[in-house]
Give the backbone structure.
Amino acid sequence: MANKNKISKISKNALNSNASNEVNGVKGSNKIDFLKPKEIIKELDKYVIGQDNAKKSVAIALRTRFRRNSVPDEIRDDIVPKNILLIGPTGVGKTEIARRIAKLSDSPFIKVEASKFTEVGYMGRDVESMVRDLVETAFIGEKVRETEQVIDKAKQNAEELLLDILIPRPPKSSKKNGGANGNITDEPDKNSYAGTREKFRKMFLDGKLNERFVEMEVKSSSKPPIPVIEIFSQSGMDDIGQDFKDIFSNIFPKQKKLEKVRVSEAFDILVREESERLVDNDKVINNAIRRVENSGLIFIDEIDKIASREKSYGPDVSREGVQRDLLPIIEGSNVMTKYGIVKTDHILFIAAGAFHVSKPSDLIPELQGRFPIRVEMDSLSKKEFVRILKEPKSALIKQYYELLKTENVSLNFTDDGIERIAEIAEEVNLKTENIGARRLHTILERVMEDVSFEAPYGKAKKVLINKDYIDERLKDIIKDEDLSRYIL
């Protein structure tokens, strides 16, 4: 029953390729609604080491969302999200906390860099595009959900359509049954066809027809050319281009052509087409917009890059102008997307920045006021690096162990080896640019370079990663500070 038990990865993978994630349900429908702040922190501890103040703040913000859903209707709309400003150097866990919270709450989530936006009227992305991207993410996630609901029906329909291709239905017989009324009958042909069809069905379900080729109509990969249209708009040019692609893809008829494909591929194609036909797109759009408006989460990184570091005259495209464009989005406004109007009043915004050169007070006062919760992230030392290497659910050492295990290589990281990696990471961060826990990636990759390269060629073996092993591979780099800057 190989094909009968096939999961819905055909449609799910296609939709998940662009998604994140990612959509939160209505009141009481997801895990986060049943978790208290301490339980949320406990979940975050599985992936993020330290940063207790930041975890506490986001846990409270998420619990506030749950509380808002439980208050009387007349004051619900007046309760605004408690937006958070995370202050700290790169690599200390700001993005990871936001990403894990989005996964934990199953919320629509996107990460954007504030430095990529420009003031309205200038070439580049406008701030409203972040809301459009969030809606697109929610739409894809919601479509995955709806596809999973109809996938069984889609498989049943695809099975019947495939059998129609394998053994076309016979034309009605013109023979008379010899009765007094002379009625036309096709019973003999029906019985014969039905029996043959069931035999083919059994062969298909047993996987015996998978390698046979059939001829069927498939959508052509070639698309009609989209006319070049020049248009002036407040939207970014990338958004305009995507909108026009969507418009013209609906105007031009979808071309089909006859192709020979294997039965297994034909079944996948038919399942995908039937899934698309059975999914109610209007319902998907309505659910996606509702989820964005009630549980969307936008992480704005590098917000310190748009802070005005000094008083200047005239417009500043990449700083104060962007701040003033961000303000109405964060305050709450209506944004037009290709799926309809979206209200941003209850989207949770988490902003982050290192603020090495500028400081939070350099942001315009109105924008500062829209981030009432400020958390200063802790810098990471050797102690935290050791914990990061060992404790998280997807710790780096665990990743390397599992990766090389596929090549019959067994890694054994000793405690002194782990401490040496953490010590080197701390030293390099102090001497060069502080990139936090990301330094562990560069050091470990350098340490494991030879093992990773030789693994496919050797037999099953064990590799001991201790302090001496690490010093042997990094001693020249560590001694030469200039070389260390380039390599580690």
